[in-house]
Amino acid sequence: MTIVPKDGFTRKGLTRRSVLTGTGALVVSFALAPHVLAQQQPVAAPEPPKLPGSLDDARRLDAWIRIDANGDITVFTGKIELGQGIKTALRQVAAEELEVEPGEINLVTADTGRTPDEGFTAGSQSMQNSGTAIRNAAAQVREILIAEAARRWNVPPETLRAEAKTIVAQDDRTIGYGELVSSQLLAVEAQPESLLKSPDALRVIGQSIPRVDIPAKVTGGVAYVQDLRLEDMLHARVVRPPSPAAQLQDVDTASVEQMPGVISIVRDGSFLAVVAEREFEAVNAMRALQQAARWSEQAVLPDQNNLQAFLEATKGDIGTVAEEGSPEVSGKIFEATFRRPYQIHGSIGPSCAVARMVDGRLTVWSHTQGVYPDQEAIAEMLGMDLANVRVIHMEGAGCYGHNGADDAAADAALIASAVPGRPIRVQWMREDEHAWEPFGPAMLMKIRAGVGDDGRITGWNYDLWSNVHSTRPGGAGNLLPARHRAQAFSVPAPRFNISQSGNGDRNANPLYAFPNRRVLWHFAPEMPLRVSALRALGAYANVFAIESAMDELALLADVDPVEFRLRHLEDERARAVVEKAAEEFGWSSGAPEGDRGRGFAFARYKNLAAYLAVAVELELERETGRTRVVRAVSAIDSGEAVNPDGIRNQTEGGIIQATSWTLYEQVTFDDTRVTSTDWSSYPILRFPSAPDSVEVHVVNSPGQPFLGTGEAAQGPTPAAIGNALRQLTGVRLYDLPFTRERVKQAIGV
Amino acid sequence: MAISLNVNGETHEVDVDPATPLLYVLRNDLELNGAKFGCGLGQCGSCTVVVDGAAVLSCVTPVSLMEGREITTVEGLGTIEEPGPLQTAFIEMQAAQCGYCIPGMMMSAHALLTRNQQPSDREIRDALMTNLCRCGTHMRIMAAIRRAGELMQQAAAPSERRAG
Q1: What is the pTM of this model?
Q2: Which residue blocks in A209-302 are alpha helix, DSSP H?
Q3: So where are chain A's domains?
Q4: pLDDT tens-digit profile of B26-45?
Q5: Which of A353, A436, B97, B121 is spaced 20 to 30 A from B13 at the CA atom?
Q6: Nearest CA in chain B to A261
Q7: What is the ipTM of this complex?
């Protein structure tokens, strides 16, 4: 049976946990989800109550928290560390409610053999989903321990308190957590309501405790899957096709097989790889195979200089994202077309995986964002039972969305299945990652909006064209090697769907209050270039277009752009971040002098998550068209702040990364091949162009739900930069990125 | 071919193809995780190590050129138990997100700070010209390098050293 379609893949009804061995007091094997039971029973069971966060999907407390007889505490999460600091923040929420120190929590992250299935670590949802689940589970475990102590002592539970891994009575009697869990105390379903600590009682939540992973990363410890060194491990390289539609015609492998260290050449249709004893031998053999391979290629790519024509020509469904009042606009009209190119994730470490096939059982170590979906897709690709495939997460370099991680895992799995026994390490080369990772899709946004004599927006028409923004596995067809095999899995048809959190249409509907609006997504089903989720999905380009238009409308209304936004914002938390960013920037003191401009932008991510406003000061070198963000000042409200410095770190990063996308980045290609295959053909921001300062002011909302942080800055940043350029030069740029050539052309140099 | 390498003050004999980039020897033969593979093209700086005081891109440097040279990797700057000033400063400033580029950043900084413990903003940016960070940790990286310079100066000024 299949249920709960979520983020493009389908979850199984069964939530599996391995048998916990060792001295653990709690031994649980399978936690059957109630909907499975429901299907097996002839009479429809009542709908189970909604549980907080991911508890709703893995409903037993012991799926999340284990306490051993010696008092050791282990917390399990289906989420992963991406450099966002989740390992630290999740320890904080667990330690808070369990009344222990964060260092006393052993945290196990995504592993299909051990942890709950939380789908993908994506969409800035780790704190909402896993953080909420763990916090509630920890609070419920604490209350169960208190109740158990109360039962043993025959005293009322409200006279007891938890402290330092013990339950303490009024007469100072204590009993350790480990002594209390001697039975199957936590092998119970979680409750919908938890007794969470009140905001004023928090000790750990809200503290900027240092990240647990940084010391190893700065001293050469094993930190990444790239650092995994298993005994007898072999090194593999994949020879990727030269272009997206290329097929392998012929390859003479005889001479390559004789090269030093070569163990095996794996060919399966258009999938070609080499396995060698040593890494450099694999690289040399890969280069030789590249020379030996003959490919047929097809000119199937759109015209890079006219992506608008491609997007408008690929006819799919049209979805209504938002509709209110009449689509007519009146008053002074602003009308424009904005465009975004294909852009890459550009992880600094190219994708890597290690796989080992022994006796028909496959283990894969991967920096995938979703171990369970990957397990399913790899099992499908290899025709294996799910039970014989284990995917264990290890960190990779920052991914910022769906990069080559899953494909590298599948490469390693496919090669390991052909060369069983010894572990196989696959390391992608730089050109593999640049050319073959799924790109952030090109987008086209047309806007027509008006402002009345009262200085208020009269109406808003917005049309966007885009591919789907997620082609994650679900399904072997989303794995590159599965597509290239002789028995090829075809690329699944993209599903068009208008959802609350949005996809290509994420943040397409402005949060601002006005009477008339119509927002449409013209779905582009054809994907000549491989695309998928890049940090913030459509929100990057949609907020760029919306917030550029807001500044133009403010000009038409002759109102300060910050004031104009506040005039249309009813949500108090939205207003608060706008006011905070403006105040900290010193907005009221006017625009800077000389060749510097200022710009402002705001969005609430997905219209339901974190609020973020940013003001930037931009400098322009007119002769060269070079622009640089000198100063960025932002304010963010991502709900109850667990680790304020973690929120600042991610937001600083979001602002700088989005600045790089906006000033420099576009995938280049001819009619057949991707031509941006390294850092010289796809430049990104380097240190000389980094800002002088980036400020992030965390607006804390104690007692409010976690809203997530990671992607909130991606949309407002490009708009603030465009608005600053407009303020400085009087010219608006509609096409991302704002390259020197485009800037010079716009200002007439 | 047997090659003798001096890495972090220790001599190692390795038997490798002399054309092998130093990076693969450091990572696979000497099992040092600090230097990272990022591009193999000398464009991103993840593989940066210090050779005879200068920052060198180990992914494009054949190991055969390294005999008789002093090679330092991030492992040579201190340990997790006893971190050196650069490591202390990066931890103090929480100057990492994914952290993959950070050892390369630290080695470029090490070459700079060995020459000049009070670098200007411009000198820091120039020293990191070759190092790419994708998470956008630039501001913290620069702050950590300034802080490391301070820590090194404090350590080098005995008169200011506290007793004990």
Answers
A1: 0.94
A2: 214-217, 254-257, 279-292
A3: 3-212, 225-298+351-435, 314-342+439-469+504-747
A4: 999 999 999 999 999 999 99
A5: A353
A6: B17
A7: 0.96
